[in-house]
Amino acid sequence: MTFKLPLLATKEARSDDSPSVLALFGVQHPEFLTPLKRNSIAALRNIFALENGPGHVQIVLESRQPRNSSSICNTTIFQAFWFSSTDYEAWWQSASVSSFWNSLKEDAGVWREIMRISPRRFMHATGSTKKQGLALVPELAEVEYANIAPQQKYWGIYRERISDHESDDFESAFISQAQRKEMEEKEVKTIPDKKTVVLQGPPSSTDTSIDQIRLGRVVLPHGIDNMLYVWEFQDYSQMTEQEKEIWDKHINGFVRGWMNSLDKERSKHGVLSFRNTALTQIDDGLTSTSPESQITSQFVFYLDLAAFEYSGKSTRDHFKARMAFEKHHKDSGALGMGKGRTQLSVEVGILRKSDFEAEYIGCLDGTGLMGYKELIDAA
C-alpha cells in the first residue's frame, strides 16, 4: 500500500498557527432511542447547521455489551470539525447554542469534549484515497511516502513528523502506575521522573452499577499539559475476498488483541479514555442508529506521547500486527502494489492544558475523562 502523509500546512492562511477545533458531542442512550434521546440528537443536528457551525460532521456509534436493550450502553457521537477556532467560539457563544446547552436537564446523558488543535502539534497520515478526520477541514501539504527520508519511515514515527518536536518534549507530569511498575520490572535504564497515577479501567458489562448516572454537570475547564489525543480510522468496505481472508487469518487477531488491551488494561498503556466506534446512520424517524461495522474508528486520550510510544513498543499484539501488516502489504506481498483495498488513517494532537475542555451532563460514571476531575483540577 502506498501511503500519503498529509500534514497541516502553515501557509499564508495559517501564518499565525491558529488552531483548528475538533469537538466530540455524545448522547448516551439505550439500544433503541427513546423520545427524549431522539430530541437531544435532533437538537444537536440543528445547532450544527447554524451559522459558524462545523465545516464537517461525522456520526459514529460507540456500543458496549448491554445486559438488555434498555441498558444505557450506547453513545451516538458527533465528530465535528472547525478549521477556524474563531468560528467555533462564535458558534458556541451564540444565543441558540447557549440556550440549548443550558437547558439540558441534570440527567440528560449528553457530553462534549473540545480540542483546539495547533497545526504545529498535530500529524495526520493516511493510506486512504479519501480524506478523513481533521484532514477534511484544513489545508494540507501532501507528502508522498516515496519522498520521505528512510529514517522517518518506521512505524510510530509520529514525534518527528510533528513540527514542534525540536522545541518541546511533549511530556506530561504523569506516568501510570502500571507503566512505571513494568519499566521497573524490565529494568528500563531511564524511568521518567513523573508523578505516578492510577488509571481507571472501563465499565464492566457485568457490573451492577453500569447504568449508574451521575446527575448534574461535571465541568473540566482544562486538561493536563501535553495530553495526547489519537484518532485511528479503518475502512474495510472495499476489501477483496483474498484480502479479507488474509486479514482474518494473519492480522485481525493481533489487531483485536491490541485494541482490547488498550481498552481493558488502560493503566498499562497510559490511557485515560478509549472509545471504539463504528460509522453510523440515523434513520429518518430518529428511532434507531445503524452502525456500519466495516468502517470503524477509535478515539483515545493518553497521558502523553511518551505513554503512547512505550505502549506501542512494549505490547506483543501491536508488534505482531505491525509485522503481519508489513509482510502482506509490502510491494512483494500478496496485498502489495495496490492489491490491498483496506484504507487506514491516523491523526494525533498534542494538547496544551488550555487546549482541552469538557462537560458531562447526567452521564454514566466512567464516561470520558469525567472520573479524572480531581486530577485535572490539580494539574
- Give the tally of structural domains: 1
Tell the overall outline. globular
Strand content: 25-35%
- List the helices and strands in order: EEHEEHHEEEHEHEEEHHEEHHEEH
How large, in whole angstroms, is the Cα Rg?
A: 20 Å
Descriptive notes:
With 379 residues, the chain is an alpha+beta fold. The chain has one domain (7-378). The chain is built from ten helices and 15 strands. An eleven-stranded antiparallel β-sheet has the order 6-14-11-13-12-3-4-2-5-15-10. A two-stranded antiparallel sheet has the order 1-7. Helix 6 runs antiparallel to helix 9. Residues 9-14 have low confidence and may be disordered.
Task: Produce a short descriptive summary.
With 379 residues, this protein is α+β, with helices and mostly antiparallel strands.
Fold topology:
Layout: E1 7-8, E2 20-29, H1 35-48, E3 56-63, E4 74-82, H2 85-92, H3 95-103, E5 110-117, E6 122-126, E7 140-141, H4 158-161, E8 174-176, H5 177-185, E9 195-197, E10 213-220, E11 227-235, H6 241-264, H7 266-269, E12 271-282, E13 289-302, H8 305-314, H9 316-329, E14 343-351, E15 356-364, H10 373-378
Parallel strand pairs: 8-9
Antiparallel strand pairs: 1-7, 2-4, 2-5, 3-4, 3-12, 5-15, 6-14, 10-15, 11-13, 11-14, 12-13
Helix pairs in contact: 6-9
Give descriptors for this structure.
379 residues; alpha+beta; 11-stranded antiparallel β-sheet; two-stranded antiparallel ribbon; 15 strands; lyase; iron; metal-binding; Phenylacetaldoxime dehydratase; heme
